[in-house]
Amino acid sequence: MIRKHSFFGMGAGVAASTLALAISAQAFAGTVTTDGADIVVKTKGGLEVATTDKSFSFKLGGRIQADYGRFDGFYTRNGDTGDAAYFRRAYLELSGIAYTDWAYTVAYDFSENSGNSNGAANSGNFDEASFSYTGFAPITLRAGRFDPDFGLEKATSSKWVTALERNAFNEVIDWTNSHQDGLGLQVQALISNYAYVSSSVSSKDANDDEGDSVKQFNARGVFAPMAEAGKVLHFGVNFAQRGLDDVAGADVRYRSRLGMRGVDTNGGNSAGNLGNRAVFAGTNAANKFWDDDTAWGLEAAFATGPFSLQGEWMKRETDSAGPQTDLEADGFYVQAAYTLTGEARGYKMGKFDSIKPANKEIGAWEVYYRYDSISADNDVAVTAVNTPTSTFLREADDTEAKVHNLGVNWYANEAVKISGMYTKAKTDKITNRAGDDDGDGFVVRAQYVF
Hints:
6% of the residues lie in helices and 54% in strands. With 450 residues, it is mostly beta strands.
């Protein structure tokens, strides 16, 4: 009997086998050094093979984040309770070094939930596929697909960001730090471990009416006179701009899920037709034309021992190229976190890192509170909008949202993290179909990193 195998099935089998290999590798510890070729194999936290002179290496790892959330009020179209269970992220990651000065990273997201859902649900996508040249130290040159720099929370890995979802305004400016299926070039520089700067140019997947892709520029600068775990003083500034000239129907919606991803997921189970993801301003109508879309950001952070405090202010402006008015919004968040078991949050230049439990039996316990704010200029009243992702009523006035997030993280070990977060949102001048201007939600997450 002749058996037929689909390409997708073979690919999924290879991926599953590779994933199993990486996870099982964590059961072993220590290093193995050959007698001749000077190769070191490390099996703690994935699988890593490298030459002792660090000229060549590769590391296989990844992350799995499984979420479940329940929410009501403004988060649903009619105010009833909805829920969602989904893989927030399911990454398989390969990175390494070749010929000393060349580095590469390939990260594939099987969940399709962290990027744009341009294809079929759960089809997966390359979250990153880039290579870098480090021979001009302290300058690094990077090319390929990657998320451009914009903001402290976005710079921090999703594995170690404190809250389950980044601040509410981050979605209002989601284009600033998303590759959107495009490619880019980036220059980074680390200056004596107290300053970091980066700039990048990207070609996005949207095209104008002549077929030219949307071009985007990003820049970020960080100054950190204190830059070590448990002793951080951090300041940063960000800028991003994309040109939307002659792009019919460019998506300039100022919208946010307000901390509840489950109301509208890109992949996996969501609240479906019940979920409400309101638009505070803007549109993606095909008959609207725009000019430059610009964002600015300021960031600051302080940490001493197990306590950390951070915040960011962001602003977005979209210039009109038609009869409609310009768009504008600003927002901020302030977050305080404390590790009850005494561990300090890790810090690498320009971003926070993991918390490593000191006690292997009880792990590390962290509590946090974050306050988010969104304010958008809006002069377009919407009496009723029914789309696959939202139903809302909006007045011709400034729209606002305030979000409270209270959560706990349990770092069981360096690979397992269990999290829970309660979120309460309050809106002004915008409601769901039932007239609700507030909502409550709760999300739990199980994370495994290898």
